[in-house]
Amino acid sequence: MELGNQTPSNFILVGIPGMEESQHWLAFPFCFLYIISIMGNCTILFIIRTERSLHTPMYCLLAMLALIDLGVALTTLPTILSIFCFQAPEININACLAQMFFIHFLPEIESGVLLAMAFDRYIAICKPLRYTAILTNSLIENISLAIFTRGICIVLPLPLLTIRFPFCKSHMLSHSYCLHQDIIRLACADIKVNSVFGMVAVILSWGLDSLFILFSYVMILWAVLKIATKDAQFKALNTCISHICAVLMFYIPLIGISVVHRVRQHHSTLFPTMLANVYLLGPPVVNPIIYSIKTKQIRARILRTFQSHRIHAEGHS
């Protein structure tokens, strides 16, 4: 749809390309995934909040990760419901820019939290005797403030730079959410500043974070190889499995969608759309499951809660 030289008041979001007639059936799996995500992350937050033994730097960072994943799920849920449940794909341009900010801001600070968790694992394995002396509550608070401030400074310019554009092309976006790369391609103006700023922001945040995470694990592996017994080596590496899974679940789709948007003309619209769904919905769904399975304290609390509810139910039967 061509809009002449006028900026549209609404954008049109796309569900799954090629499946427009059966998209209402996709509401069930999407809603199921959102329920898992919201319940899982709320469970992690509740357990960490109520268990005083979990009020440590490692679990404070895990609580931050769960809070961010919950925010991502709640940010994308309205457009998913409107598209797949109510067949209402239109979104106001201001609401779209607001969603765009949170969609980029929350993963930005999630990257910082994953880096902080890698630092936590490095100290725990490489300098265990100094763990409590190094990772104090004040340090975690300062790290959290730095991550939040960096996210604001990097992401806030994106909607401010985008809102100035006239959108005189088709106002059909190619995702179920408002992404910066997707919106600026519809602008009838020079988008070089946005593209360059976006690339620099990716390099200075996600690029550097991933390099530091990789460096942390090189140092961790070096320290683990110095441990005498295989059992001790396995136990040390086992404490990192959950974090490694979270890092891979976050960075692999992120790198993929960044590359696809820059060589989009060589791909169909289905692949980047599905990749965007994995990028935004994957970590909120998978992370609480991984940490619930691999973290002994959280798993034990969940089992105790389940058993108490079962005993209570049997008592009333």
Main attributes of the structure:
single chain, 317 residues, mainly alpha, two-stranded antiparallel ribbon, 2 strands, 73% helix, globular
Overview of this structure, please?
The chain has 317 residues and is an all-alpha fold. Helices cover 73% and strands 2% of the residues. The protein contains twelve helices and two strands, in the order E-H-H-E-H-H-H-H-H-H-H-H-H-H. Strands 1-2 form a two-stranded antiparallel ribbon. Helix 1 runs antiparallel to helix 2, helix 1 runs parallel beside helix 11 and helix 2 runs antiparallel to helix 3. The protein is globular. It starts with 9 loop residues before the first strand and ends with a helix. The relative contact order is 0.14. The N terminus is likely disordered.
Rg value = 22 Å
Count of DSSP H/I helices: 12
Structural class label: mainly alpha
Strand content: under 5%
Shape: globular
Helix proportion range: over 70%
Strands ordered across the widest β-sheet: 1-2
